[in-house]
Amino acid sequence: MALATQEPIREHALHVPSPALRPYLAGCTGYRQAAIAPALHRGLPSPWLTFIVTLDDPLVMAAHPDPAQTPGTFDVLVGGLHTSPALISHDGAQSGIQLAVSPLAARALLGMPAGELASVDVHGADVFGGHAGRAHERIRELRAWADRFAFLEQFVQDRVRASDERTGVSAEVRQAWHLLLRSGGNAPVSQLARQTGWSERHLRTRFRTETGLGPKEAGRVIRFDRTRRLLGRRAAAGQPLDLAGLAGSAGYFDQAHMDRDFRLLAGCSPTTWLTEE
Q: Which CATH number fits domain 171-276: 1.10.10.60, 3.30.365.10, 3.40.50.300, 3.40.50.150?
């Protein structure tokens, strides 16, 4: 008699941070998958630092954005901004909660500027000390997504309240970052410098220290992140992809320009990414 096979498990939960935490967190995503086909997932560049707490098995990093960093496993991971994909593997099961952290919040939440984490992934204990292990244990005990999100929000609030670095990011870097976000990544460095009153050279230096990327690189990542999310929504809704129109509306010169950025930042073309993901 044939053995019964386990039905695939696919859980996905989204959480909007409370108003008090929105300067620090862009969003929270919970996921649990089991009894699915083993796969290699691309961790794509985005304008947010990555903070992941796993639920069941450790996160397996097959390749980091910095190829010099050795692959490894993580119970709690903190990753900086990057301009090439990470590769995450699983054998048919993966679960955790991922927080999208503003790079401007790195001093308050992580105790360091985001520039110190540029293109690298570190164990949570390297940033939070013993608090990381205790948070991991508590998250694994909780059963409801709402309770898990509430616990992590409290974790972030406690870190921010205990920090002396909340004002460590200059008003000029904050202004430049938000101008880039509002422009979809398309504001030129000359405009950012003019708005902040700094020279372009000084802005590049200070901006990279605080975020991990220069203004031009950050703009490219912001534009790419917005574009691939729009592309994913169109595909999910069964709408025409209209890659040429999407490229124009996102601020690319043409579709070829968008394709080049996808290959640079995702390691593949837009259509290949959709097929894989």
A: 1.10.10.60
